[in-house]
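User: For a benchmark we're assembling, each entry needs the component sequences followed by a predicted structure for the full assembly. Here are entry 17's components. Please fill in the structure.
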Amino acid sequence: MAIGESDPQSRAVLSPFRTTGLSPNREADPIATRQLTQLQLAWIRLRRHRLGMIGLGVMIFLVLMAIFAPLIAPENIYDPNSNDIFGAADKAPTLHDGLRYLFGADNLGRSVTSLIIWGARYTLLISFTATITSTLIGVVVGGVAGFYGGWVDSLLMRVVDVFLTLPALSVLLVAAAVFGHGNTTVLLVIIVFTVLGWAYIARLVRGSFLSLRSMEFTEAARSVGVSNARIIFRHILPNALRPVLVATTLGIAGNISFEAAIDFLGFGLQYPDTSWGTALAFASQEQFRVWWVTVWPGVFLTITIVAINFVGDGLSDALDVRSKN
Amino acid sequence: MRQGGSPISVSTDPREASAGRNASGNLLEVTDLKTYFKTMDGVVKAVDGIDMAIAPGKTLGVVGESGCGKSVTSLSIMRLVDLPGWIAGGQIKFDGKDLVKLSEEEMRHIRGNKISMIFQEPMTSLNPVFTVGNQVGEAIRVHRKVSKSEAEARVVDLFRMVGIPSPERRVKDYPHNMSGGMRQRVMIAMALALQPSLLIADEPTTALDVTIQAQILELIKDLRTKVNTAVLLITHDIGVVAEMADEVIVMYTGKVVEQGDVMSVLRNPKHPYTVGLLSSIPSLGVKNQRLNVIPGTVPSPLNLPKGCTFAPRCPHVMGICHEQEPPLKTLEGGVKAKCWLY
Amino acid sequence: MQQTAERQTTPQDGASNEVLLSVRELRTYFPILGGVLRRKVGEVKAVDGVSFDIKRGETFGLVGESGCGKTTTGRTILRLQKATSGEIEFEGQNVLGLNPSQMKARRRDMQIIFQDPYSSLNPRMPVGDIIGEGLRVHGMRDRREREKTVQYFLSVVGLRKEYVRRYPHEFSGGQRQRIGVARALALRPKFIVCDEPVSALDVSVQSQVLNLLEDLQKEFGLTYLFIAHDLSVVEYLSDRVAVMYLGKMAELATGDDLYANPLHPYTKALLSAIPNPDPLVRSKRIVLQGDVPSPINPPSGCRFRTRCPIAYERCAAEEPAFREVRPAHFVACHRAEESTVLMAAKVASGEASTAMPVAAGPDA
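Assistant: Structure for entry 17:
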């Protein structure tokens, strides 16, 4: 948007649709361009977002690392025989052993490199799965509430309110006691995270749907006889997607750090299941005697969260219709 | 009619308002003002070298379509242009001082005190969590050393002055309890609280219904005669200018294209843009006569045509128009027009 | 009691005498929900018993200030808003009684142009899809054929055919409004509700769109319901003009007659409140006192009486009928016959021409 539009009030307009005034027209060039879909346009814009691309690169790298952990990790941390418990206990980081002891080893002689590579599996699996399922549930519930309104909306939103007030740790402990015989398993963490997370998305989607439903372009669609399903999928959803996708990426980041926190507190994954959080927790039991066991998983946690936030930022810009393509 | 006589009961000394003047007798003199904005695609010259002057108690109307720079002009005078915009040049002489050169601290003393502003949207201009009385009182206490109760009493007087019914009660209202017309009255009360010598009204009635607009315009007129405040009235509505202003400036792409007294400019417009603008308004009682159309649209501020910026839309365009920018020439009768026809 | 405009017979230019749309006693109330259980605690009576006929080929103007119900009336006619009661007949068919599939078919005939050129176009759809969507849902499945039709309508509204592939944000306000017009036209409707189609546009662009609407009316034989708050725009375009106040009809007459001889005090005030661009035309202005009362709890009797300079006891006690005071000129005012004289006297004495002080309205 160029600046010619300088009415003081236009600054206050937060909605993606400007409501008043004329834009200083960008006299479009006469050549018919190839029709690009919204997805292609978004990808083109994302590619120009440097930080977003960096974040995306880091995420792809981490996901590949997690998937191929058995092939690239120097040790199989779930195999008691693969680590050098006597020779490498508390080994300080060194450049001499290639990747294996680059980040040092813990008191069991497990190389930190291996802990990080294997730990990425559960860390990413839990956060991605839980966030994506909560997003799906949230979009459906929020979409139904926002589109149909009335008592459906009231009912669903009261349910959402209940879920929003659930105390996370208590839910986790109760779930562990009831379903996991006192143990927190990976599946249990995913389910609990989903249960705790969908309501935020639902509330967000409901708000978007509610305002988009009364936008004039939805009314225009209704006035030519477009069906509800088509209105939802062609008119409302594409416009509601941007905040949802941004919230989802931030949700992944949030879930990563929350998972690490519950591991650290001992309510999370149990030995031998390893995530970056349990690696941190394990180090804390050693009273941080060996700094490298704490620091490196922490560094990876931070890098991941920052990278995801970059991706979120990039997506937010890429999905903004008004930005230049 | 609860109070006959003058509603301006908290009248001020008109001499105070007209005390500070520039040497020429004008309260405000803007010379060659330039306000630019930096964008991703280049520099936008939102205001590009405009001159204007207002004498105490007079009203200057600034008309033009969106994007012509009229609002940026008012923000520049208030020094409220934020990055990525900046005042790139020129002088804003007010009260003998050049506002462009003042420090932010000195400017704060002038804003709301000597120059105040009313905006188009009275809803967003008021803070929803404070009562309107509180907000107007605050504005007084920022600039004047008065006790809280004195300020409160003053607010009630001001509310009465701008025609808010039962002011003692309404001062305790929150902005959302009030209608658009009432909120605009509150804004006017706030703007007048310190008896500014210049009132900048940026589309003060655009968001209001005609019958409410009529009330507000009458109010501004009334205050102007009684408080002797000079008014800079920015609007797209030529009818409002015709009714309110003594002088008028027509802006197009950041420049003044025509300037003069209201009677001459609106009755006998010189610049083809003014002519086009005036004849494209449907007026009451005139029917079955096709509206005049100015062809095309306002050019992008990033890509202004060479020479006269109106040339591509002008019915009288000549060769020179595409080559050279015309000067703002003074014609007989004192009207100025920026056009090669003259 | 409620008479209608049926008997008017003065043919307008281009307008026939055949009634295309007839609205009877239309009411649209919005419930106000409150409390934990979201029970209905009140109603906004946005449209409260409105009747009028629109003849084929004419432009019927509907004016009034914000909150008078003009927009709701337009939307209710198109069933974008649920009517509380009343009848809407289009070509003799009761629109409110249609089932969804019948309604879908009817929608081809009745279209709308919105006020806001920004929010009325889906920012994530290319122009071709926006205009062609109606064609698609009404059975034009072939993409090529659809695109051709869209291109035709783009050229009809004065835009380039190449624009089909562009997105709305690439256009200026005036161009976007043309796209909105093309969308409404694409289904070849008989009737279009123009809901403040130019009020968000700049003056010079406004006249372009108004001229376009006039041309299209001739070319496609359209009937317009033209809704606006700006009386000069409505009067310019319309054959007949209705003035609404707080959910009710105040006055209905031909455009010329309404302008020359307004009978309702509200119409008089509205006309005099419009600032005239000619500095020499300075008539004494009637300035109404106070604000429009709330439609939740409208005043008894005549709804305008709280602001009316010539109201008397009867106005509070009895609701005025919408009656034909002069041929084809309907007014809802007890004092319609004497209003001109009474108002002139008030203005002369200065009682109705000052902005202040403001009488306490119900909202005060």
